[in-house]
Amino acid sequence: MNTATYISELLYRYECVIIPDFGAFLTKRESASIHSATNAFYPPKKLISFNRQLQNNDGLLANYIASAEQISYTDAISKIQRYVASLKNELTNGKRVSIEGIGSFFVSIEDTLQFEPFEQHNYLTEAFGLSSFVSPTIQREIYKEETESLEEKAPIAFTPEKRRERPYLKYAAVLAIAIGVSGFFGVKKYNDQTITYNDNEHKEATETIKQRIQEATFEISSPLPAISLSTLKEEVPSKAHKYHIVAGAFRFIDNANKKIEELQEKGFSPRLIGINQFGLHQVSYVSFSTRQEALTALQEIKNTNDKRAWLLVKELP
């Protein structure tokens, strides 16, 4: 895997990713926005910028490459140096260099390094699955002058006499209430009749069994040993918990298991909820069967634990 891919993966998790001896990518959260001219709605996202002054190696990128490729830290540093050398060589030759999913670099006329981020990629994990859309313009036609002239000639006043001109609305409301009340008592009466019928059938069956037992004659020559019978209780499957509050996504399963242990110590009920489209193992704080429970818990987790938590709707096998 090339170095650009590792940089892209780190931008999902960190606000600063330094490329030693080249510069650093910085991210900043931007809230959802509306473009008034085009009526376009945009989801929240991470804005990416580049700072050439931050070139000291902080070990983040090198350690990540070493862990991903199972190589030594020194070999990872060498790989980064070769990548930076190739970038500088292309820029020196006047070429425009693109880093997949992040942006492009070029040298301006003033001999300064310029960076243009790509807008198509969103590194904000909370916005996974959200995309921009355009809403049709709402047309409002206000006839102000005509309304003012009409009110001068015949002002509108809502009086008791005006309300009495439409009595059918009152009767319609009363009729709707009456239908609702009668429906409620009708259902209640049906339920009461059903319960009474079931009770009578049960009593009749019990009496029949008692009568047959009294009329029967038992002749036991060699009694069998006593046995005990246990009643099996039918288990009703619980409703599937398909609303999951996501705590994070990890490329390595060991890191996902560590996150689960950490959340268990905090009193949550974490679990693995599958691998996403980027090949990352997702871990949830807790799962719920209803959306309202999940939204309430999500707000609480954002306030007390991690504001980056987000809700995933997914039915697990």
From TrEMBL:
Tagged with keyword DNA-binding: yes
Keywords: DNA-binding
InterPro entries from the UniProt entry: HU-CCDC81_bac_1, HU-CCDC81_bac_2, IHF-like_DNA-bd_dom_sf, SPOR-like_dom, SPOR-like_sf
Keyword DNA-binding: yes
SPOR domain residues: 237-314
Xref: Pfam families: HU-CCDC81_bac_1, HU-CCDC81_bac_2, SPOR
The protein, known as: SPOR domain-containing protein
Originating organism: Aquimarina hainanensis
Source species taxonomy: Bacteria, Pseudomonadati, Bacteroidota, Flavobacteriia, Flavobacteriales
